[in-house]
Structures are given as structure tokens and as C-alpha cells.
Amino acid sequence: MSKKKILIVGAGISGLSLGWYIKQQHGNAVEICILESSERAGGQIRTLKQANFLFEQGPHSWRSEGPESPMHRLVTQLGLKDEILFASAAARNRYLYFDEKMHCLPTGLKSLLLSPFRSLLLKALWKDIFNAARQNSEDESVHDFISRRLGTEFSEMLMDPMISGIYAGDIRKLSMQATFPQFFQWEKEHGSLWRGAFHSRKAKSKRGSKNDAVGICTLKGGMEALIAQLEKNLNQEMRFGSPVKRLHIEDREGSVELANGEFLHADAICLSVPAKALAAMLHSSANSRAQNIAQQLNAIPTAPLAVVNVGYRQQVLQKNGFGHLIPSKAKEEILGIIWDSSAFPEQSQGRDETRLTVMIGGAHMPHFHRCEEKDFVSIALRGIQKQLGIEQYPDAMAVKISPEAIPQYQVGHQKAVIEIKEQLRVLCYNLHLLGNSYEGISLNDCVRNSESLSLALC
């Protein structure tokens, strides 16, 4: 009996975790091949060690959801449980920068009573509890949903910077149903976000689920340690420098043509690449349905992001916390700054070290593509001086520019993805979609979706 062949296109976290789960479930009974166009695995996950500083140029951490968390289980299975670092107690402090001042968000009842956000939050609570739930379940923008439930001021002051920190997106365009499905479900089931949150917390308590105090964790050696461990376990299945030129469709069966002219066939082809990259593979097909799917994939927009890491060999931060975000109405080019050395001091090489990650760009920076590396450095240093009062020049810096960094789940996204998957299923029985272009951009989402697909394939 011949082995089932599974081809995975793309060696980001989605493709690698899919390969890991399939290998764990079926061992040598399945033949796996993972194609990666570049010479490295990990996709957006990249940890840089420069001038004795640890810089994260992609995802910094993941949200802990206890032992049931997809990331927690994967890290444990890979033998990295002892490498997990939980964010410091100081990381409970999150800040907003507006009106040229830093404002700490409340972390509990006592801090709420003293917070400048007290009135805003109490008005939002009142509005949500006494505002009737919408009867239909049509999608709407984050701005419209939050404004309707909690008020426009809450949406623009608090939800807007949160969206910037996660999606680098525009709350007036992003889909509530796709970006925060839990909020959407809470209103549908409980008629209120506050009641939904209460029942969710109560249900977790009954299950015995215990989260850590901060809910955020990373790995001692940086996030790329996860990629290195996955790559080590999948070494025999990896093929680097193997870009896919196009997907061929014949008699509802797909095959892959590489840039070097080689053709690969498999029982299942799992496409773990950005939507636009997949669109390019389908666009040259003679099949009209394939071309239509390519157009739909190209319609999924992305937001650009530049990450500027800076390091100082002295303590220059005047506050402790996870970092700060900035409402888009403040008209700053910086989306926010992560205070890495305060959030994860164990990753510092010296007690007085300061590490910061400046995030620049997003949906509200139309001139992003006209900027060069030196421009992003200037923006970062000006922002650090203005917002954090740090005038010293860094001892080390690193820049990563991603013109198409984060998929944007705009209104109607879930419906569009369902249609794309249905058309793909009709077109070809052995093609499967995977990755953060479709159903969740977080590391937990990517790993969860990979595990689900692995079970469906075998």
C-alpha cells in the first residue's frame, strides 16, 4: 500500500505546525513535503540577536489560555515548556498616548476609580447593558458595532488603538464578525458584551481553566526558537528555495509547478501562503474558475508595517508596562511602542538594558510605500523622544519593512472566505487553504487551524 502524499506550500507557523501535527498523528505512514520559496522558515516570525540585544521583528508573544491553548500545547509537545516566559507583573500596565501625554489604562476597580477613563467606561457600561441587541446577524464594521454597543467615544478612543496594535487597520472598514467573533457572539447570545464577558469568565471558572496573571507569554530565546524546533523535527521534509510558479488543475486534481520547471503531485496540497501569493499561482491557470478565485483572493487587502527595534545599554524608560498604543485621531505615524525590556526583562542581557519595538504604518499611513529605511528610523526616534522622553541615541537598531504585513478582514470577509473555499472545492478536490489570510491572524489561531486541518486530511 503506497503512502499518502501531502504537499505543504509555505513554511510559516501555519505550514510548519500542520506538518508537525500530521507527522505526530501518522508518522512514516504519510509522506510530507514542505515547500518554502525563501531560504528560511518562519514567515513573519523573526528573532534577531544583534549587538547583544534580542529583538523581535515579528510576533512578540502569544496570549496564554491555559493548558488548552493551541500554542501552549504545541510548545509543550515540542519540549519547550521550560522555555516559556510569562510577562512581568509590570506588563499589566498598558498605556494610551494622546493629547501629548501618557495615560495608564485601568487594571482593576481601584485604578478605575482614579482613572481619567472612568467616565468613558461607566457610560459605555450603561449603554451596553440598557441597549437592546440587534435582531439581525449581518456583519458590520468594528466602529459601527462598538459605537452601537459602547458609544462612539469608546470606539475611537479605546477600540481604535487596540485594532491598530493587532491589525494595523481601520476600524471603519474591518469586520467585527471576523476580527472579534467572541464579541459578536456575546451580543447574539446574551444581548450585552458585559453579560457575555461575565458568563464567559464563569464558564472558564467551572472548567477549572486558570490563566496566568498577565495572559501573555513568549520563549526565553525569542519566538524563532519555536520555528527552529519545528524545523528540526521536520528537517527531512523541508525544501527551501522552492517557489511555486503555478497551480495546474486537470480533472479536478491539482498539481504544483515549481519555478525550476519541476512538477509535484500529491493526494493533498495545503496552501499555507498569503492570499495574494496564492492568487498569483492560480491567475495563470487556463481554468476560468481558478481565475475567478484568484480575483477574490486578490481582493483581501493587507496593511503595511515597519518595525524598528532599538536597544540601550542603560535604563532610559521612565515607566514600567507592556507598552503604549495611540488612537488614530492623534495623527501620529507611530501605531504604538512595545516596551520589551519591561514586559520580558528575562530576555535582557543586562539589568539596566532597555529594548523597545516601534510599530509604524498601517491603514492610516497612505505614504508608507514612499518611505525608506532611514525615514522609518527617523520617525521612530522622533516618536521615542516625544512620547517617552528618551533623548539618548540607541546603542543598537534594526529595521524590518513589510509592505504587506497583516491581512485586513474587512466587512464581509467571512462570507468571502466561505465562497472562496466552496469554489476551490468545486474546482479541485485536493487543494486546501491555510494561513492567516482567512480565519484568524494570531499565533493561536494559526496553530488551531493547522491542527484542525491535519485531522481532516488523514
Describe the fold and architecture.
The chain is α/β, with parallel strands linked by helices. The strands form 5 sheets. It has a 7-stranded mixed β-sheet, with helices on both faces. Helices cover 38% and strands 22% of the residues. It has helices at 13-26, 70-77, 109-113, 118-130, 142-150, 152-167, 176-179, 181-190, 193-207, 224-233, 275-283, 288-298, 340-343, 373-388, 413-427, 443-457; strands spanning 4-9, 30-35, 47-50, 53-56, 62-63, 84-86, 94-98, 101-104, 216-219, 238-239, 244-250, 253-258, 263-265, 268-271, 302-312, 323-325, 334-338, 354-361, 396-407, 431-433. The chain has 3 domains: 4-44 and 223-300 and 410-457, FAD/NAD(P)-binding domain (3-Layer(bba) Sandwich); 47-90 and 302-407, Polyamine Oxidase, Chain A, domain 2 (Alpha-Beta Complex), CATH 3.90.660; 108-211, protoporphyrinogen ix oxidase, domain 3, CATH 1.10.3110.
